[in-house]
């Protein structure tokens, strides 16, 4: 009788040891508001990565791991982002993919640092994010300094820009990219004839543009997102400004093509951190699978979200642990081939091989120019 009880106890222990474990991965981005299309696009990229990982039957520490998505809406708002970050930490997530905007990522990163939870942003490009010296903060996309240099060189050498007016939305992303562009342009001898700002809720830019019109710039740059970029471009054209219109990845979206169909022409250009999907190692297949799974086109950052989620999972596999303190060294040393390219990080947490692409508007879509 005693031997039977011991045998049953051992079987119970063995069953417990081999039982599945649930590993929660957090996602944070704007799921409501004017750029919710970008947030939802990214969330679906993460969801696809998690579904792929679960289909492989990954084991961690001798147990089959089931990855679970815990998604939060930060509304692209700095204060909400910190609340969301704390909520994810309290929920017991083992890693986070987010946030989408630099303005949300920077304050939220302090919460993750204090909690010791690795976070990988798919799209926050401000250099300030990884200049904080935090141990848990990473990104899988090029930063604003790289993007600004690429834009300035193309604008000067290919478009002949000598005078530029610069507008930003005063977010960490918009202002950060605008400041970086101004510095890059000045190095190339371009005259900055206007430096204006608005906010990320504005829709009327006439007073700013009327002032700029009198300065007769060759180009106007806007640092911000498509929700403001679209009415800004419309008003640029209404005022009869013939200037080249430049922007960053916040306007390099499928949504911008819809919002500004009547105003886009061959004078509109944007840069995007990263390379065109058709040139990504896994881009074509990802685009097809994404459309089939979600019945939607990729907006912008879905492939980077996929790679960020995959990076966390691969680091856990390499460390044979889902505990942040144990897999963080593996994340630092990670070197894998992702959808977007090679994923490995430098000492700051920046992607080592972050490309930048210059796009022009052509035949109803964004076409890679360089």
From TrEMBL:
CDD domains: PBP1_ABC_LIVBP-like (cd06342). Coiled coil: none annotated. Residues 22-364 form the Leucine-binding protein domain. PANTHER family: AMINO ACID BINDING PROTEIN (PTHR47151:SF2), LEU/ILE/VAL-BINDING ABC TRANSPORTER SUBUNIT (PTHR47151). Keywords: Amino-acid transport, Signal, Transport. InterPro entries: Leu-bd, Leu_Ile_Val-bd, Peripla_BP_I. Belongs to the leucine-binding protein family. This is Branched-chain amino acid ABC transporter substrate-binding protein. It comes from Uliginosibacterium aquaticum. Residues 1-19 form the signal peptide.
